[in-house]
Specification:
The chain has 796 residues and is mainly alpha-helical. 70% of the residues lie in helices and 0% in strands. The protein contains 40 helices and no strands. α4 runs parallel beside α6 and α8 packs antiparallel against α9. It comes from Arabidopsis thaliana.
């Protein structure tokens, strides 16, 4: 990036771009494709105005046209001389804006000129001094452009030392005397910084320390600009650009001087954030590569000094702000923001405890300030307008800090990987607590805002979704540290359970399939499956049933709570239902009964049926009788709960899977199987005959198809009851549907190789076919009220 800036014409524009500044610095609206005719005409207007000494609106419009085309035009020495002549006029009153525009064109000249005239530059400096000495002309934009062009003059290698000294003196005097003007307009700050950057890149050492004092001290002035993340990034990349120039030109003296004045000496008159960002800029510049010999040694010293300064600032934050408790004060917040973005931009930095703790705090309070957002909205809900908070959230989404959250998370994980075991444990708990709080607080905000402020809720969830990605990447880094053979079983199990519980808390925000997520899940589940204790610990972390259906939180007193609308909570429970089957063999029947059973059918989702199937097919030798008994008890509740909300909530695929599993894994002749068959037949009877003969996807027809499938699945003790119940159902179907059902049954029986079951099925099918082929209308018309059930009983 430093090389890119070096090849750029305008340093201030590059600073705006790399800092993510949304404030335009254009003096006039840019014209990307000016015509040659319009450019020629503009210069002609300026020349004519100078000759006639008549600087009217046409003259001003000509200057604006040229400045609007600054990226494409080239200002030659004769044209620069024309511009300098305008600045030198003493007896004619010029529009105040024209001075700023003329200076801008002189800046275009000096930045694009291959070898500008030394004499012409000297005259230009004197003319600029004359303009700024007249305080009537002083405007913020004029001061900023004067600083910029003076710095650009001083940066030209071919100019003499005397001319450069004049430029540097003018620049320093302007900033020392008129800093309040510069600080009054945000768009001028990158212009001034670029001017200082050019000056620092001058071949002279004259006024060097004075320039550093201005760069790092102006932020502490009462009327100077205020330190922000955007300005911090400008300083970072400005110093990167300057120091990269020192490295390329082998300016060892300047590197040494910069290190001594900025990095190795603490000065009260220097803003901490500015020095910190400058140190990060040095680190970034040093990663471009090292030369050999003395230069390489000096660059290494410079980088070491920068890293020590970064750690020193982190230590200040740790000792003063106690970042482990997540500070959010006005003083610490901006510095933490700079901390996060700087470590993301400057590349690899030697690991230290203060750096890790500061970066953790920055992530959890500044990059993802969800705690502050939730608290603010909950306190103000129903009392204050929501508009200002919507703007606050929108601004954070567009902020460069949030946009680089991925890079910041990467830097955080790199610091974590090299930390001591004690600090790793501290940071892990900070992240896991963040997940828990995110779950609890987002439940509240989602219930409060859903259907009322959906746009605002969506913006908040964008921040939360990004924090989910951070949690996943961090959790993967944690598994690589602790889920290794050399780590104790206790530490591995504790870590695995905490990751699973944390993932359950942020499950609501998982909208894409992440390889890092899948890898982490596989690693921790593999560890949990090795022992009963972590499995039980994970299951016991499920929120209690009462807290799910009737929470006593303060926010539920402000709204009418309906657990079925609590999507955040539902996502968490579904996560548990999906994970528990992977370790169901480690879970005792008592643990399943006490924690899982009451919760698994709160919402009868597909995961509930999968979990039931896993439990019914599981075995644990130490409690075989107790487990079997509970399985049968559970099936009664399962059938009742599933069918009462079928088809509205219960998915048929899940129901079919659960029923197939229970008939295969419960003991032969189990009352629970009889009850299941009875419940299915009873449910099928509630559907109209149209539903039972319609499309295969119709709910009633699906139940009938499931009953037909059970003919070849239930044990021989239950089969007679199933055949009788199924026949009672089939006999009531219309003729066409009866034929289809009989055809399916004949196909099943024909393909069956079950020598025990097949004879009974053949006899039953013949009787069922006979009853279906009878003309029931004629039977009823004969005056005989034949009970079909009795007929079936007699024949079957």
């Amino acid at each position: 990036m430093a090389r890119k800036a070096n090849n750029s014409f305008f340093l201030e524009e590059w600073l705006r771009t790399v800092s993510g500044s949304s404030v335009s610095g254009d003096l006039v609206k840019q014209n990307s494709a000016p015509s040659a005719r319009s450019i020629i005409q503009a210069w002609s207007e300026i020349r004519e105005s100078l000759q006639n000494q008549n600087f009217d609106s046409r003259y001003l419009q000509a200057l604006r046209a040229l400045v609007s085309s600054e990226s494409t035009i080239h200002v030659a020495d004769p044209q620069a001389k024309l511009l300098i002549s305008i600045l030198a006029f003493q007896d004619v009153s010029l529009p105040s804006e024209s001075y700023t525009l003329v200076l801008r064109l002189l800046y275009v000249w000096i930045r694009k000129a291959f070898r500008p005239s030394q004499a012409l530059v000297g005259v230009a400096v004197q003319a600029i001094r004359g303009v700024v000495d007249d305080r009537r002309n002083l405007q913020p934009a004029l001061v900023a452009q004067s600083v910029l062009v003076s710095g650009a003059f001083a940066c030209v290698p071919s100019l003499s030392g005397d001319v450069k000294v004049l430029c540097l003196e003018l620049l320093c005097r302007l900033l020392e005397e008129e800093y309040s003007l510069v600080g009054s307009q945000e768009e001028l700050v990158p212009v001034v910084l670029a001017g200082i950057g050019y000056a620092l890149s001058s071949s002279l050492d004259v006024h060097y320390v004075r320039l550093l004092d201005l760069l790092f001290g102006i932020w502490l002035k009462d009327e100077g600009p205020r330190g922000t993340v955007t300005y911090g990034l400008m300083i970072l990349h400005l110093i990167e650009w300057v120091v990269s120039g020192y490295m390329r030109s082998n300016s060892i003296n300047k590197m040494s001087l910069f290190a001594n004045e900025v990095l190795e000496t603490s000065k009260e008159k220097y803003a901490v954030f500015a020095v910190f960002m400058a140190a990060a800029g040095v680190v970034r510049a040093s990663t471009a590569g090292f030369s050999s010999g003395a230069q390489s040694l000096e660059i290494s010293k410079l980088r070491n000094s920068a890293e020590k300064r970064i750690e020193f600032v982190a230590q200040i934050l740790v000792s003063n702000g106690n970042v482990v408790t997540l500070p959010t004060t006005q003083r610490e917040g901006p510095l933490l923001k700079c901390f996060a973005i700087a470590l993301a931009r400057c590349g690899s930095v030697s690991s230290s405890a203060p750096l890790l703790l500061c970066l953790t705090s920055a992530l959890l309070t500044q990059v993802f300030p969800l705690g502050q957002i939730y608290e603010s909205f909950c306190n103000a809900f129903g009392k204050e307008p929501i508009g200002p908070r919507l703007i606050w959230v929108r601004e954070h989404l567009s902020d460069v800090l949030f946009k680089e959250s991925g890079a910041i998370s990467g830097a955080f994980c790199n610091q974590y990987s090299s930390a001591s075991e004690e600090n790793k444990y501290i940071v892990e708990n900070m992240i896991w607590d963040f997940c828990q709080n995110l779950y609890l607080q987002h439940r509240q905000i989602a219930m409060l805002l859903c259907g009322i402020e959906d746009t605002l809720l969506g913006d908040i969830e964008k921040i939360a979704e990004s924090s989910f990605l951070m949690v996943v990447v961090f959790a993967l880094a944690v598994t690589k540290q602790w889920l290794k053979p050399i780590v104790s079983k206790e530490r591995k199990m504790e870590t695995s359970v905490k990751i699973l519980v944390s993932f359950s808390c942020v499950e609501y925000f998982r909208h894409i399939r992440l390889p890092e997520y899948m890898e982490t899940i596989r690693e921790v589940i593999s560890c949990v499956q090795e022992n009963d204790a972590p499995c039980v610990s994970f299951v016991e972390s499920i929120p209690a049933y009462d807290s799910l259906t009737n929470p006593k939180d303060l926010f539920t007193q402000r709204i009418k709570y309906e657990w079925s609308r609590d999507d955040v909570q539902t996502s968490r429970i579904l996560f548990y239902l999906r994970v528990i089957p992977t370790c169901i063999g480690r879970l005792s029947a008592s643990a399943f009964r006490g924690v899982v059973a009451s919760t698994m059918f709160l919402k009868v989702a597909r995961a509930s049926h999968t979990l039931l199937a896993a439990f019914l097919s599981s075995a644990k030798e130490s409690e075989e009788d107790e487990r079997t008994q509970f399985k049968e008890q559970l099936v009664f509740y399962y059938m009742q709960r599933s069918l009462e909300v079928y088809p509205e909530i219960t998915p048929f695929e899940g129901l079919a899977s659960g029923v197939a599993t229970l008939v295969q894994h419960l003991p032969a002749g189990s009352p629970a199987i009889f009850y299941s068959v009875h419940s299915l037949v009873e449910k099928a009877s509630t559907f109209s005959t149209e539903s039972l003969q319609g499309r295969k996807s119709d709910p009633g027809n699906q139940i009938l198809e499931l009953l037909l499938r059970l003919v070849s699945l239930v044990d021989i003790q239950v089969l007679p009851y199933l055949m009788k119940s199924l026949a009672q159902l089939v006999i009531k179907l219309p003729k066409e549907r009866q034929n289809v059902v009989l055809g399916e049954l004949y196909g099943q029986v024909a393909e069956s190789d079950d020598v025990i079951r097949k004879p009974s099925l053949v006899s039953w099918l013949q009787s069922l076919n006979y009853l279906c082929s009878n003309n029931r209308t004629e039977v009823l018309a004969s005056g005989s009220t034949i009970d079909t059930s009795n007929q079936l009983a007699a024949r079957l």
